Prior knowledge:
This is Dolichyl-phosphate-mannose-protein mannosyltransferase. The chain crosses the membrane at residues 12-35, 41-60, 81-103, 156-174, 181-201, 207-224, 284-306, 346-365, 372-389, 395-414. Keywords: Membrane, Transmembrane, Transmembrane helix. With 583 residues, the chain is mainly alpha-helical. The chain folds into 4 domains: 1-72 and 331-421, no CATH class; 78-204, no CATH class; 206-330; 427-532, no CATH class. The protein is 61% helix and 6% strand. The chain is built from 21 helices and 9 strands. Strands 6-7-8 form a 3-stranded antiparallel sheet. Strands 1-2 form a two-stranded antiparallel sheet. Strands 3-5 form a two-stranded antiparallel ribbon. Strand 6 and strand 7 form a beta hairpin. The model is unreliable at 420-464 and 473-523 (pLDDT under 50).
Amino acid sequence: MKMKKTWFSYLLWLLYMAITGILLATCIITISIYTWELSNYFAAACVCLFFAGVAGLWLAGSKIAAYAADRIPKDKHFANMWECFVAMCIFAGAVLYRIYYLLHAGEAVERNLFYEMAQVTDGGGIPNITHGASYVYTALLSAVFSFMGNKAEAGVGLQFVLQLLSMLFLYFGIRLLSGRVTALCATAFMAVSPAFVTNMFSLTPQGLYLLLYAAGLWMTGLYLRGLVKGGYRRAGSYFSFLLLGIYIGMISYLDILGITLFFFAGMCFVAVKGSGRGSKESKNIGVGIQFIVILIAALLTAAGIIKLDAVYSGQSFEDIAAVWALQYSDNIHPHYSIPGPDVQPVVSLVVCFIAALGAVGFLMRRYQKMDAWVLFLAALTAISFSGIGRMDYGIFAAVIWGTLAGLGLCSMGAEAEEKAEISPAAEKLRINEIEVEEIQVDNAPESDTQAEIVRVEDIQKSDVQSKAALEETVQKDDMPLETVPIEVVQKDDMRTEAIPSKGIEQSTIDGNLVRIESINIDKEALSEERGGKEEIKKEIKFIENPLPLPKKHVKKDMDYAIEVLSEQMDYDISPKENDDFDI
């Protein structure tokens, strides 16, 4: 969803530039360790060269995208067909690549603590785990083991299914939030990312939690589309935000990373405030109420789950809440590294280079789509720095950087989209254009007279600038000026006022002055042109109606006499005397 740039967007842009620069420097230093050792100053110089290369690539790519956009059919059906084809190819390639990797990689399955706890034994069930996502994953893995046996391959199959479902939900969620091209780019990176593929052999809860988080993104995208189409005042909007708040509260209880879904829910509010429906005050009130609905629903849901846990375990609500908060504050181990797209530095370097295109596109375009994703990246970086996370978030970082890379590629072709789409302000300006139909000259000299035609240059200029432009136009001593009435077509709230001192008309549209330009018009040529128009109007002839008209009914009269014999005038039938029909 496109959003206007604000002061907060520029702060996020600076943060994004800092994170990208640090990650690029880290990747360069890591690569230099295995190739040739470079100093830190040389790594900083390489980062500057990388950003210069990003700017040059973006400028070249924008020209190529504009050239290609004029030659690609702008048919929605054509775009949908190509999107379906590319998406199916990506998902098919992801499935085949994972199957091939499972058959030929020969990588051993990590038999970690979750594998040990999920095994089905005669001793008992699943032990009590404080971390909600870990407990749910252990229960799910134990259910799979109960059907397929305590085999590590069964856990790999579960990870395989969870990854494919996560990619599916992420594709639809990113498509609704950031566009189809961004979704295709992010899904393509997830399909071939080594971080995703190797995660199948690690029986950890991040695959399950990624699926739950992707479902939350998809729900947020659906509510965003519903708000844009139906408006924030529709009957089901508050119910939709209530469901979204309940879901955010549920996955926030499972892991603290679920709180970041509030960033994407905020995109819905920005979309509503940016729409042209309703006044600014009413939209602010409506958006504020909806945010309160989401916040209260999330808090009540998290509190309700904690209460159910307390009832199930036989402890108090305060004890369970304290244990839940203690798991994130206890044993904090700071880790001073930025989560990158992949564990391999070369892959991270390439993806960060493409993602940096979005930083250039932010400055060159009027709209942006990066705010929520940069906030998500900043939150994940803060969790990684502080060490409060209870699981590995490597695949989440891959999703974020893949999406940012897709946004960077899309920013190069955003100019064609802006030209194709007509914004509400441009549409209003086009409707409010003044069309001059006639210029009536009264008592003008035979020489060339000067008429003023009012044109809308910029209705958003201030009164001071408009008055200054008006004074520059009318201060001409070498031409005689006089009052010339102008007949215009009024499309909006417009009024004309005559200036007696200068003899010129000025127009005011919505309280703003518009510039008046001067042209020279020959009176005789104007009179001849008017006379020709009047003659043309008089000579207009209409064609006959080609449709058949209804015929008039004519009553028919008989023009001859009918002579009837006297024998035929007797209508009574008399029986014969010898007729015995009644016997």
